[in-house]
Design goal:
- This protein has 6 helices and 2 strands, in the order H-H-H-H-E-E-H-H.
- It is mostly helical.
- The longest helix has 22 residues.
- The mean pLDDT is about 90.
Length: about 150
């Protein structure tokens, strides 16, 4: 069967969506035995890199709504990967447990392999360009809301 071409191939959003689907499918396969959703893994990684951060800071860093952060943090605490500590009368800080630190280290190791699978397909200059322009595109949402 012939490969069909489409005007969609010239659409930035279409190409990004297709690329994201491939990247995310590989990411999920890479960490499948962790029994964690991607948002849980990335939340664990942000907390491991930012000890004593707040839940709202993590949500803001990952662009996850407050209501959606609650079950993510609850699951990480339930699995004893993250612990809350009281900072003052009202504030709670998040920190990975020793088990969470070990899992985060293994996740980083696997993510490095996952990233290399895709980075190695691009010339260094192309990779640099992609990494430079994607934050510009992400900020376009903020511009359109104004």
């Amino acid at each position: 069967m012939a490969v069909l071409t489409s005007a969609l191939d010239k659409l930035l959003g279409y190409q990004m969506r297709r690329a994201t689907a491939v990247l995310m499918a590989d990411f999920v396969r890479t960490l499948a035995d962790f029994d964690m959703r991607p948002a849980e893994v990335t939340t664990l990684l942000v907390i491991s890199e930012n000890p004593d951060c707040s839940q709202s800071e993590v949500g803001e860093a990952l662009a996850i709504k407050r209501a959606n952060m609650v079950p993510i943090i609850a699951r990480l605490i339930e699995r004893e990967l993250v612990a809350r500590t009281r900072v003052d009368g009202r504030s709670l800080a998040l920190r990975v447990t020793p088990e969470g630190a070990a899992l985060a280290a293994e996740a980083w190791r696997r993510i490095a392999v996952h990233e290399a699978r895709f980075r190695d397909r691009l010339a260094p200059a192309s990779l640099e360009t992609v990494l430079d322009v994607l934050p510009v595109l992400r900020s376009a949402v903020d511009d359109s809301a104004a």
